[in-house]
Amino acid sequence: xxxxxxxxxxxxxxxxxxxxxxxxxxxxxxxxxxxxxxxxxxxxxxxxxxxxxxxxxxxxxxxxxxxxxxxxxxxxxxxxxxxxxxxxxxxxxxxxxxxxxxxxxxxxxxxxxxxxxxxxxxxxxxxxxxxxxxxxxxxxxxxxxxxxxxxxxxxxxxxxxxxxxxxxxxxxxxxxxxxxxxxxxxxxxxxxxxxxxxxxxxxxxxxxxxxxxxxxxxxxxxxxxxxxxxxxxxxxxxxxxxxxxxxxxxxxxxxxxxxxxxxxxxxxxxxxxxxxxxxxxxxxxxxxxxxx
Amino acid sequence: xxxxxxxxxxxxxxxxxxxxxxxxxxxxxxxxxxxxxxxxxxxxxxxxxxxxxxxxxxxxxxxxxxxxxxxxxxxxxxxxxxxxxxxxxxxxxxxxxxxxxxxxxxxxxxxxxxxxxxxxxxxxxxxxxxxxxxxxxxxxxxxxxxxxxxxxxxxxxxxxxxxxxxxxxxxxxxxxxxxxxxxxxxxxxxxxxxxxxxxxxxxxxxxxxxxxxxxxxxxxxxxxxxxxxxxxxxxxxxxxxxxxxxxxxxxxxxxxxxxxxxxxxxxxxxxxxxxxxxxxxxxxxxxxxxxx
Lengths: 292, 292
Known about the structure:
- 2 copies of one chain form a homodimer.
- Chain A is of the alpha/beta class.
- The first copy, chain A, is built from 13 helices and 10 strands.
- Helix content of chain A is 43%, strand content 17%.
- In chain A, helix 3 packs across helix 13 (273-289).
- Chain A is globular, with a radius of gyration of 18 Å.
- Chains A and B meet through helix 4, helix 5, helix 6, helix 8 and strand 6 of A and helix 4, helix 5, helix 6, helix 8 and strand 6 of B.
């Protein structure tokens, strides 16, 4: 089944929440760190607990690959085990790697992340389109062939995203992020599934609700991956414009706010980090349901 | 020593050539593939031969990480061994990974590639600045702290690079790649070494000589990493504008044209792939010296 259709089906039966698996090592409960034979093993053990706690409440998890790469091969082995375990538990896996390169190299990246087998074989991948269409095409083709998805950076959640993304281009008087939205809409056209959504998605930060409102209209068939909710400052009202009138069209990511909820939610601690994560997802689901 | 100074010193005593280690598996001589216990082992064995053949002729090698990631953990183990071996042989290592993310995640990437230790610890890294300055700052800080370098994508060598990079921005009437050049020049200011060059470099494709000419003026202290020579169509005349009048300021990358020279150079074959690579570097050096 087309990736977008799989994701939309899962959202309908659970929630539009993506759990970001960014296991910042120093925040992993001490007991796990002490008992694990390696740092990578601690990352996996921690992730396994999170996946166990949330797998029936969310459609998809998003490992941020930097937090694994920083531990070298040991960290990447943990990533591979995490991907495998999440799939076993019925979750879709979105690899947040923001890969980008010229065509023949992009093809190699597609083989790494959007093939049907391999240590890092995921359901979807984030990509960066600074290089233009020929750097994106191999990913789109892999999506078609293997029922996978990509999410292209459009308007990112960080403070400096405007340095380039807000600049007005050409005589069109539209900012770069709108130009990118037109690209995403057009590049994803052939991958629209029965759900009406395309397997070519867009990254649109929760921290820019005004921009999201415009982008929602420019990309009616595009699923938005929405980072920036929670730790980065975005709230429920901010993510509202990312959804279509059908209450679909977006998955809202939360990483730290869920996986390290034990540090902030009252009544939880390191020994109940799983329960805290589950509680955080339930709260977030209610929060989102209040606005869509 | 500041990365730029190390690189410039090495260029002066060898050549302005960067050897791209993109070991496309199917092009690796059959004997190596047959004898290696794993695909990753074949990648490393092949790379080792290339490094042995060229290490005294060039300052730097550039593994393109996609060609390792596509073989999963086995491929990444080969990458780690390649990085280690290249350093042992006195070469600088530029990891071509085009990483990019928001600040706290960029910091994790900097830990992975620009730290002084770790499986993938390199001397420099390619990065993509679509996210703006706060996504680049952690890399710049790692460069300062650890004497490392980065190369920011400015004008890439591929056909579609103009989709975004050639668009004129704001009322300045300058294309995106020139805006990016201004950023690179300013972000790299604090990292200018005794050589007069900065450890914050730029990627400028050999396939766009007119643009390179303009960019050379806009970034006088910036070292250009120039892809696109050889297999992608760029020749010596095309790379000329990437150099300053001092004959410095650029490293010209060649991947396929060197590592798989045995397929194209007369008198060589799979069993003499090392000699062919050495011959290709010598030819390329003469070719470049003819124009700078």
